[in-house]
Write a structure and sequence with these properties.
about 290 residues; 5-stranded mixed sheet; two-stranded antiparallel ribbon; 11 helices
């Protein structure tokens, strides 16, 4: 399991995040699913591939939605940053295994899967089994098709984004802005609840290490950032500090190098002042004009 997969699972496993995603994308923002009515589900199954190898498959995130303590539906999430032309085969396998596991149970429940797609380009590949296969016309009346429930996060409308109430709103807003404004982003002032988890996920989804560094480089006693404005302000300040330190170091090396060239101090003394070995000092100052 890759880092991105782990961060997605950890973030979406929070009940407030999970319920928010379901309520917006299944119930148009109505608060139908409550946090207290969600129960973690380990939706894992095994299958034998064509070469005879037993393979285990597991959804990214899955929870039971309960009413009065009774499980009424299993909801699963699959996360995608790239378009997968054969994803319906995998989804059908997940859902089929979930139904098969109910065969001996007295109380049965439906299974719903949402695909959360974070790509910047529209999903251009099949969204159903029927589109993935060449089904002869005479067999189509007997073919049971399977349609995926796709959420193209970056392509949601501003009205849809406004319906979110959790940290997922900040993530959706980021991807929508980056798409609509050709890569530009005006940081949100909405308060982040799950700071560390959300920033680590943002770092994994965007390949922008500024988000995770805001978490990992937080000094002892330094409070967590409250919103995306502070994330970018802190990243900018640290960048300026690093640039200043680099400039000061380069200036010091230049000065020491000139003193050595003029015979004012020895090479050993210059290296000691720069807290380098002689070889390191020589290598660093050779690059200076």
């Amino acid at each position: 399991m890759g880092k991105k997969d782990i961060e997605e699972k950890q973030f979406e496993d929070y009940n407030d995040i999970f319920a928010d995603i379901v309520n917006v994308n299944l119930f148009a923002g109505k608060q139908i699913v409550k946090e207290k009515d969600l129960e973690n589900a380990k939706d894992r199954s095994r299958f034998k591939s064509t070469n005879g190898v037993i393979t285990e498959q597991e959804r990214d995130v899955a929870k039971w939605w309960k009413k009065s303590g009774v499980r009424i539906v299993l909801i699963g999430f699959e996360n995608q940053t790239l378009v997968d032309p054969k994803i319906c085969f995998r989804l059908y396998g997940y859902d089929g295994a979930a139904y098969k596991s109910q065969y001996e149970e007295k109380k049965n429940y439906p299974v719903i899967t949402l695909v959360l797609y974070f790509g910047s380009k529209r999903w251009s590949k099949p969204k159903s089994l029927g589109e993935s296969l060449q089904v002869p016309e005479e067999l189509k009346p007997y073919f049971n098709d399977y349609h995926m429930n796709l959420v193209e996060v970056a392509w949601q409308t501003e009205e849809q984004v406004a319906l979110y109430r959790s940290d997922f709103k900040i993530i959706a807003d980021y991807f929508v802005q980056k798409r609509k404004k050709h890569g530009r982003y005006a940081p949100s002032k909405d308060t982040i609840k799950h700071v560390d988890s959300m920033l680590k996920l943002m770092s994994a989804l965007t390949n922008d290490d500024r988000f995770e560094k805001t978490v990992s480089e937080r000094k002892k006693g330094e409070r967590k950032v409250k919103n995306m404005c502070e994330v970018f302000d802190r990243a900018e300040n640290k960048g300026m500090q690093k640039g200043l330190q680099k400039g000061l170091k380069e200036g010091m090396l230049s000065t020491l190098s000139n003193l050595v060239k003029k015979g004012k101090i020895s090479l050993e003394t210059a290296a000691q002042e720069a807290q380098m070995t002689v070889d390191q000092f020589k290598k660093a100052t050779m690059l200076k004009p």
